[in-house]
């Protein structure tokens, strides 16, 4: 796999995808197209069980969308680009593999939306976050108004979206926006450690957990329970389920094959 704006490294069942667009890894049409392509490719790659998404350098994970590109665009272009960006974020959210965001620096606007589309978020202690769009006369268009409120509630979400104030990693952890904060020089190692643990787990079971949680969050409890039952039955029918249960009874480590 070769990309102009992404670096991709696959090792130990983990794919590390680095957005590489100096100086601040701003999102433009090319980045979105390549992100969509790489997620599609990794989703069907049997050598990948987990995806880690990060940014190059120490300054930014993704410092938002490319404002120069947006400022020169007409409404038709913006509408089309917005369709692509929302599609890519949804593709990441619904990937069959767990996706971990390793937030190495600024995650602003579209960068924070990208992080919110991932399953888990580990932050550098130097990272900072905000939704500055209202100050530019626009609003988030990549799912930020929807995913943020599901994580932190409407009141706090409106506060962050209305004012656009910057907040740090400690505050993001307190609000539940990130799962963990680590020193900057330990970030990628921490993300790979989590990825390594997940990569050893049965892939279908992880996929069914993700499907049950993501789909169930958009419906009522009773419908969510039906979804959970279907996902449970699917996972129970796998060879990995038999292996996991037998390994427990036999007091040995299971060996999963992804089937």
From TrEMBL:
Q: What are the protein's UniProt keywords? A: Lyase
Q: Which Pfam families match?
A: ECH_1 (PF00378)
The answer, when asked if Cytoplasm is one of the entry's keywords, is no
Q: Does the keyword Flavoprotein apply?
A: no
In terms of superkingdom, the source organism counts as Bacteria
Alphabetized SUPFAM superfamilies for the sequence: ClpP/crotonase
Entry similarity comment: Belongs to the enoyl-CoA hydratase/isomerase family.
From the Swiss-Prot or TrEMBL record, give the protein name: Enoyl-CoA hydratase-related protein
